[in-house]
């Protein structure tokens, strides 16, 4: 059995019980990274990983107390700060940025003796759904390298799927963990908003952004989330949660959203989705229809609210602070304009323009305020729906991974990638994507389960039950 076939808990136990060393595991991950270098999932393997692994091995030798992730390599997305290391958000603008402190989640990982292994490729500033908007070049799908990895956390999903690293951390604002997880056949969750501290994470839409784990199994995912979650005095939006453990049941009531039904029926994967529902029903879960009237407006709202926040969050990149400065600016205004024009890629510039437009006087009420109102209605509708059911089910994406270059010149078709993932983001509720079937090109398809806030335990439980019934969609 190779390292990549082992569960996280077995890896930790193996190191603790001296069946193998952390150094051997890290060496293996480095070899895997070299083997899959062509996928471009990893931007940089940190230079001290072997040293850190040896330190953990020494701790084991000395019989010292060890953390829950003793000696385990964890890859992090390029927008997560790890003190003394580069974090570039896959942007030319931040290529030379060195993190001055640790993100809270990194600190939590280190406290549990994890080894922060590498930084992973992403869409610039987490804007995108393909991992093609990166200053480091396109990240390719782990199963079919002619296809996209998905985005924006494409590098993290590919890393896990290819077996480079047992776990990777991504961020999800509107689907950036769930969609690439779906495209690469791995498990990804976006927890309840606030579950994981955002301190030390470069978010573009702070009101929906969450960092969380991408793993091979549901069990590993839960194990990781429990480690990185928790209220943090450095992030006022963070929350304490027990993940709703008391809400775990033997059989669940599973809702299908009436307003999405017709659209889902038209998808190529519909027969497979129907099969999944039948499997769940046969296993004793009850299927009901629920109404979420405003779900159909989610995408439009998201592409108003998130660019508005991006505009405001990225205003600090002015060519003076942080990073890249245009070399041929003669005045202060030119410095701003030239630095931002040279530093930001096309998609980021598009969002800044869009965001400024919806926030400008005259359009603020018509677009931004209206979108925020619809978001409130959506939240309430979800709450009502969860009075009738425990979980709502949808495909994670409309289809399997598409070809590289297939959507990059058509931003609207790229935005449509987020159709099923954005509602949970706007409502702040948890949602998980698990592999459930294969599409026409034999590439993975993901199934999404959403539940009421602070009930991740329910998602993990049902996802696990489902995967056991279907052998992981294989
Ligand atoms: N694809 C979405 C976007 O481009 C989601 C991004 C994300 O979740 N970070 O905005």
Question: What keywords describe this structure?
Answer:
474 residues; globular; binds glutamine; alpha/beta; eleven-stranded mixed beta sheet; 13% strand
Describe the protein:
The structure is a single chain. Helices cover 39% and strands 13% of the residues. With 474 residues, it is of the alpha/beta class. An 11-stranded mixed sheet has the order 1-3-2-4-6-5-10-11-9-7-8, sandwiched between helices. Helix 2 packs antiparallel against helix 3, helix 7 (218-228) packs antiparallel against helix 16 and helix 10 packs across helix 12 (346-359). The longest helix has 25 residues, at 364-388. The radius of gyration is 21 Å and the shape is globular. The site of glutamine has 12 residues, from loops.
Strand and helix map with partners:
Elements: H1 8-16, H2 22-35, E1 42-45, H3 49-61, E2 73-77, H4 104-111, E3 115-120, H5 154-161, E4 167-172, H6 178-184, E5 187-190, E6 210-215, H7 218-228, E7 253-257, H8 258-265, H9 270-282, E8 286-290, H10 298-313, H11 332-343, H12 346-359, H13 364-388, E9 391-395, H14 411-415, H15 422-427, E10 431-438, E11 444-451, H16 456-470
Parallel strand pairs: 2-3, 2-4, 7-8, 7-9
Antiparallel strand pairs: 1-3, 4-6, 5-6, 5-10, 9-11, 10-11
The structure holds glutamine.
Glutamine binds next to loops.
């Amino acid at each position: 059995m190779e390292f990549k076939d082992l569960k996280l808990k077995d890896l930790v136990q193996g190191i603790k019980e001296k069946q193998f060393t952390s150094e051997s595991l890290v060496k293996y991950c480095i070899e895997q990274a070299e083997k899959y270098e062509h996928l471009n999932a990893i931007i940089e393997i940190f230079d001290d990983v072997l040293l850190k692994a040896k330190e953990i091995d020494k701790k084991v030798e000395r019989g010292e107390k060890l953390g829950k992730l003793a000696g385990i390599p964890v890859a992090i997305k390029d927008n997560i700060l790890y003190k003394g290391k580069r974090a570039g958000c896959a942007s030319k603008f931040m290529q030379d940025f060195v993190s001055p402190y640790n993100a809270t989640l990194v600190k939590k990982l280190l406290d549990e003796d994890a080894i922060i292994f590498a930084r992973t490729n992403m869409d610039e500033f987490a804007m995108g759904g393909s991992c093609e908007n990166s200053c480091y070049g396109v990240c390719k799908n782990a199963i079919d390298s002619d296809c996209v990895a998905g985005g924006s956390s494409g590098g993290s999903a590919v890393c896990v799927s290819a077996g480079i690293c047992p776990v990777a951390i991504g961020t999800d604002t509107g689907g950036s963990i769930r969609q690439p997880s779906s495209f690469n056949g791995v498990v990804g969750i976006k927890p309840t908003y606030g579950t994981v501290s955002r301190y030390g994470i470069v978010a573009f839409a702070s009101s929906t952004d969450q960092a969380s784990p991408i793993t091979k199994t549901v069990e590993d995912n839960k194990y990781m989330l429990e480690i990185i979650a928790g209220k943090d005095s450095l992030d006022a939006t963070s929350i304490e949660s027990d993940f709703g453990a008391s809400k775990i049941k033997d059989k669940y009531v599973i809702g299908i959203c009436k307003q999405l039904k017709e659209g889902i029926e038209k998808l190529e994967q519909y027969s497979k989705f129907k099969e999944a529902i039948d499997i769940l029903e046969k296993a004793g879960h009850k299927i009901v229809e629920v109404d979420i009237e405003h779900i159909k407006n989610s995408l439009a709202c998201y592409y108003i609210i998130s660019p508005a926040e991006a505009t405001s969050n990225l205003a600090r990149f002015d060519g003076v602070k942080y990073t890249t400065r245009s070399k041929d600016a003669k005045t202060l205004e030119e410095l701003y304009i030239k630095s931002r024009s040279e530093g930001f890629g096309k998609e980021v510039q598009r969002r800044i323009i869009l965001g400024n437009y919806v926030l400008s006087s005259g359009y603020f009420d018509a677009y931004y305020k209206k979108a925020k109102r619809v978001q409130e209605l959506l939240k309430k509708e979800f709450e009502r729906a969860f009075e009738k059911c425990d979980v709502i089910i949808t495909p994670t994406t409309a289809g399997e991974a598409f070809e590289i270059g297939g959507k990059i010149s058509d931003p609207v078709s790229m935005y449509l990638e987020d159709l099923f993932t954005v509602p949970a983001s706007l409502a702040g509720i948890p949602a998980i994507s698990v592999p459930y079937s294969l599409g026409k090109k034999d590439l993975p398809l993901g199934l999404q389960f959403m539940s009421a806030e602070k009930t991740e335990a329910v998602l993990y439980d049902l996802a696990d039950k489902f995967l056991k019934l279907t052998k992981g969609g294989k």
